[in-house]
Design a protein that fits this description.
With 610 residues, the protein is of the alpha/beta class. Among the domains are: 8-195, Arc Repressor Mutant, subunit A; 279-362, no CATH class; 422-559, no CATH class. Helix content is 49%, strand content 8%. The chain contains 22 helices and 13 strands. A hairpin with a 2-residue loop joins strand 12 (507-508) and strand 13 (511-512).
């Protein structure tokens, strides 16, 4: 039989077949095998298995591909099986088995990875050869091979199905064994919560806990002497930028060894503290300690220049001081401390920084500032005189000034109207209005979220609650004991209490004008209040007229020209009409609670006492 020189097909007795000890697939589902055996009893083996001759044997054949069919045939009680016999080298067998198993469903990822590694190790195959044979991309092949770096606990989780290959790969990329074991335990148990983390949860967790942005490093990335055992970061394989094939889905330059990162950070900080000590510069344990000992007269190099006085160029107000002065012109630090990011930070006297700014010609001295203020004041006086003289001669200018003052009154009236409208809406919250209010809030909130607008309580509303909204536990307790109506009021405050202020420049003909995207979103704020007012049955026109009738009437009078003895009848200028007063609709009365209204309740009371 070892004389076979070309492929031969025939029925092969099962007793002449021996399995390949290097077969990639090591695990077989017994239930699936039994189902296949039952099918073979009915229909036989449809696809022949592949075998090769064995050197120095005239009777034995080695199974290359089709081990499931071979095993199922044994279970089915067959004595022979259709097969193709070929002469194949070990390398050819390795490739055929890789391809055959890759095309089959249910092959464990670790077994496939082990077969790929064995083909590369024993038969000299390159990663590109495997990609070509399997028809896969290098990224996929590297990811499969990386699974071999998994710790024992993660391997068990992958094999028993608790970890998906994609999640296991996140763990495998952690290069430090102890960290990988810790991460595997956290992901598999969801930090003790029970079932394993999802891929998204695991990715976020591992990125936050086990990877670090290399740009955050305070130490030199090319200093090989900082920690001799670790060497330089420039060519470190644990840095994602140095091995993009291993970390294809991480685009940032990341350190995957947080222990080494921390060790280098500490070594750098120790060196900085020693260097400062030689220059007799004090090291403070914290910023608070430094402020206490220096009486608060301090400024650090990361504080913006606007904290200093008499800057000449207004553009410099948004520049850090060390960028503005440059390292060579910065004064000597009065101390150093470690900030929350782990950076050793220089501390400077505010007066020293001010002197350095003045010496560099970036800030005025006190005398120069006094003279500058005098000149500014004189210019303002002269401009005011010129404007007054011009306005007195130009009736149109007088009218513009008056209309500007009236527009500010109208803007202020709109602001009060919006605040009062929100308060009335909160008073009328009940079970009938809950759902439509929430629906309206949802539409508005979704729009706000789309533009990443930060919403918070207005100062007036914030002071009316007896709870710290920065404390999650306090808020949870507050809501847990709240009624549906009170929770709705809380949402109204959180979403709508910070009503955008209306300014005089936004008033045109007694109405608010909206000219850009920001103002259009403010308009949505106002419109949401109006919709909610209508839901609650509030007479919007009456409430608006209460605040706006007087300034609108003043506007109408200002726009009406003074009557003269005309030679012909002039066209009458239409006056803006104030909203027609309507009788107020009765407010809904909230039911009186059974509980004591004076109990310690952190929600603000509505006007009717609810």
């Amino acid at each position: 039989m070892n004389q076979v020189t070309q492929a031969q097909f025939g029925m092969i007795p099962l007793q002449f077949i021996e399995t390949d000890p290097n077969q990639p697939r090591r695990t077989f589902d017994e239930n699936a095998l039994q189902e296949l055996a039952d099918s073979i009893k009915v229909s036989g083996v449809i696809q022949p298995i592949l075998l090769r001759t064995i050197e120095d044997s005239d009777t034995r054949l080695q199974l290359v591909a089709g081990e499931r069919r071979y095993r199922a045939s044994q279970i089915a009680g067959l004595t022979e099986i259709p097969g193709i016999v070929r002469q194949l080298s070990d390398a050819e067998v390795a490739i055929i088995q890789l391809v055959e198993n890759h095309q089959r469903a249910g092959v464990p990822p670790l077994e496939e990875a082990e077969a790929m590694a064995r083909a590369m190790r024993d038969h000299g195959l390159k990663i590109d050869d495997i990609c070509t044979e399997l028809g896969v991309k290098r990224r996929w092949a590297y990811s499969r091979l990386q699974l071999l770096d998994l710790c024992a606990e993660a391997r068990i989780g992958l094999n028993d199905g608790r970890l998906a290959p994609s999640t296991a790969l996140l763990i495998a990329r952690i290069p430090v064994a102890s960290l990988q074991e810790r991460a595997a335990g956290e992901v598999l148990t969801n930090n003790g919560a029970g079932s394993p983390m999802s891929y998204r949860q695991a990715k976020t967790w591992i990125e936050q806990r086990y990877t670090l942005d290399i740009n955050r490093a305070v130490f030199s990335l090319v200093d090989a002497k900082l920690c001799k055992a670790a060497g330089s970061c420039a060519e470190c394989p644990k840095r994602t930028a140095n091995d993009p094939d291993k970390f294809p889905d991480i685009t940032a330059d990341v350190c995957t060894d947080p222990d080494c990162f921390e060790m280098k950070t500490e070594a750098h900080n120790t060196a900085e503290i020693d260097k400062a000590a030689k220059k007799k510069i004090r090291f403070y344990e914290s910023w608070e300690q430094c402020k206490t000992e220096r009486n608060g007269d301090l400024s650090t190099d990361f504080v913006l220049a606007r904290t200093f006085d008499r800057l000449i160029n207004a553009d410099h107000q948004n520049m850090p001081v060390d960028d503005l002065l440059g390292t060579d012109r910065m004064p000597k630090p009065i101390g150093i401390f470690k900030n929350l990011s782990g950076h050793i930070t220089n501390i400077y006297s505010k007066s020293d920084i001010q002197c350095a700014l003045e010496k560099a010609g970036l800030a005025r001295t006190e005398a120069e500032e006094e003279e500058f203020d005098k000149q500014e004041e004189q210019q303002r006086i002269e401009l005011a005189k010129e404007k007054k003289a011009t306005d007195q001669e130009d009736p149109a200018a007088v009218l513009r000034n008056r209309l500007g003052e009236i527009n500010w009154k109208i803007a202020k009236a709109y602001n009060v109207f919006h605040e009062d409208l929100l308060e009335e809406i909160k008073d009328l919250v009940d079970q009938q209005t809950l759902l439509p209010i929430y629906r309206t809030l949802a539409v508005f909130s979704a729009g706000q979220a789309a533009r990443s607008e930060q919403l918070s309580f207005s100062q007036k509303v914030d002071e009316s609650y007896n709870v710290d909204f920065m404390e999650a536990a306090a808020v949870e307790e507050l809501v847990e004991h709240a009624s549906d109506e009170d929770v709705c009021r809380l949402h109204l405050d959180a979403v709508l209490s910070n009503i955008p202020s209306v300014y005089g420049g936004a008033i045109d003909g007694g109405l608010i004008k909206f000219e850009d995207e920001w103002e259009e979103w403010n308009y949505q704020h106002y419109q949401t209040l109006i919709k909610l007012g209508n839901i609650c049955g509030i007479d919007i026109d009456l409430l608006r007229d209460k605040h706006l009738a007087e300034p609108l009437q003043e506007l109408a009078e200002a726009m009406t020209p003074t009557k003269k003895e005309p030679t012909e009848e002039p066209a009458e200028t239409p006056k803006p009409k104030a909203a027609k007063k309507q009788p107020a609709r009765p407010k809904k009365t909230a039911p009186t609670p059974d509980a004591d209204p004076n109990a310690a309740w952190p929600f603000p009371k509505s006007k009717d006492g609810s």
